[in-house]
Amino acid sequence: EAGVAQSPRYKIIEKRQSVAFWCNPISGHATLYWYQQILGQGPKLLIQFQNNGVVDDSQLPKDRFSAERLKGVDSTLKIQPAKLEDSAVYLCASGTPGQNTDTQYFGPGTRLTVL
Amino acid sequence: AQSVAQPEDQVNVAEGNPLTVKCTYSVSGNPYLFWYVQYPNRGLQFLLKYITGDNLVKGSYGFEAEFNKSQTSFHLKKPSALVSDSALYFCAVRDRGAGGYIKLIFGAGTRLAVHP
């Protein structure tokens, strides 16, 4: 079974620039999550999709972050414009919660450095 | 709100010795608890979870965790550490978002260093 794919793996940008990350979840997983992991901290949920609908974006800085999940499969997370404090690893995960399992499967992450 | 705490930033242990990585939780209702491991430049990997039943949960790579309700703890353990166990370990608790959907709340992580 193929895992969660993410690209790019690394990105370096200047502040105020824009950046986009891509995620392809495990086939058949209805739920997709984007997390932000700042160095020295645990992952923090930014947004959660159920199929192609947003079910939780309470911690997404909506003035600069946006995300979409077209056709309920792949997803993109965008930051525009980026700030220094956005430097972090952005993790995508997928799963099938509610079917007697809460396990989430994580991709390798995208490490963003904002200069 | 549900939360977990990992009181140690780093744990050092000699290869072959038993290891313990600590986690305490604060929840309303029954806790659903998880352990994940993160190797360098990799995503998080699921190790084990506690939903209900036996207080000792066995997981991947020889790890196990002990659920203790009276101490509100869910410590990760392994009888004999390997150098390859060196990684970042996260404890997590299940929560529900505003829409009632399941999500995970992670602790800050504990770095495990196993020395030869």
Structural summary, described in words:
The complex is a heterodimer of chains A (115) and B (116). Chain A has 115 residues and is mainly β. Chain A has no helices and eleven strands. Chain A has strands spanning 5-7, 10-13, 19-24, 31-37, 44-50, 53-56, 65-68, 75-79, 88-95, 104-106, 110-114. In chain A, strands 2, 4, 5, 6, 9, 10 and 11 form a seven-stranded mixed beta sheet that branches. In chain A, strands 1-3-8-7 form a four-stranded antiparallel beta sheet, with no helix packed on it. In chain A, a hairpin with an 8-residue loop joins strand 9 (88-95) and strand 10 (104-106). Chain B has one domain: Immunoglobulins (Immunoglobulin-like, Sandwich), CATH 2.60.40.10. Chain B is globular. Chain B starts with a strand and ends with a strand. In chain B, 33% of the residues are buried. The model of chain B has no long low-confidence stretch (mean pLDDT 93). The chains are: A mainly beta (115), B mainly beta (116).
CATH superfamily of chain B: Immunoglobulins
Beginning-to-end CA distance, first to last residue of chain A:
37 Å
**Count of DSSP helices of chain A?**
0
Shape of chain A: globular
Overall strand count of chain A: 11
The helix content of chain A, as a percent range, equals under 10%
CATH architecture of chain B: Sandwich
**Main pleated sheet of chain B:** 6 strands, mixed
